[in-house]
Amino acid sequence: MTSTADHLTTIDQLCVRDFPAQRTADGRVESGPGFHVAGLRVSEDFWDADLSRVEEVLEEFEAELGALGQVLTLRWGVPDILDLTDSLERSAMGEPVPPPLDTLCGYVPELRVWRVDGRWVGLGIGQGDRELPFQLLVAIGEEGTI
């Protein structure tokens, strides 16, 4: 299991990392023009799991999100909440959605978003489908892209 300190180190590194000219993936970090997305923690999958196990893991992830969110709030102030439903609907209708929201909206319902030094930092929990792992993730993008 990773710690809040590990998560903060990853976030701090990504906040200062240059954005690449083309989409790339390096381990748990996907980057592209104007964004980085990193899986801070990924659970096991739930193909054969009972509902109580899924709920237990979700509670763990929500607690971890809450703890990390409190630290970032102390650092940067109260976050905005970005509901990704509109992005998902636009994507489903074939309308353009800017990266990384184009990918995130398929499995992350909302992000807590802080604005920091010309960038935004979003934190959320995602799960692509009931059988797939939960992910605690951070997304960082250029200001003006959300």
What is the total tally of β strands? 7
User: Percentage of helical residues?
Assistant: 25-40%
Regions with little confidence, pLDDT below 50 for 5+ residues: none
The H-and-E topology, N to C, reads as HEEEHEHHEEE
Output the radius of gyration. Answer: 15 Å
Q: Beta-sheet strand percentage?
A: 25-35%
Count of domain modules: 1
Oligomer: single chain
> Which structural class do the helices and strands define?
alpha+beta
The helix tally amounts to: 4
**How would you write the strand order of the largest sheet?**
1-2-3-7-6-5-4
What's the rounded overall pLDDT mean?
A: 93
- Overall geometric form: globular
Largest sheet: 7 strands, antiparallel
Cα(first) to Cα(last) distance is 31 Å
Describe what this molecule looks like in 3D:
With 146 residues, the chain is α+β, with helices and mostly antiparallel strands. The chain has one domain. Helix content is 35%, strand content 29%. It contains 4 helices and 7 strands. The protein has a 7-stranded antiparallel β-sheet with strand order 1-2-3-7-6-5-4. The longest helix has 26 residues, at 51-76. It is globular, with a radius of gyration of 15 Å. The termini are far apart.
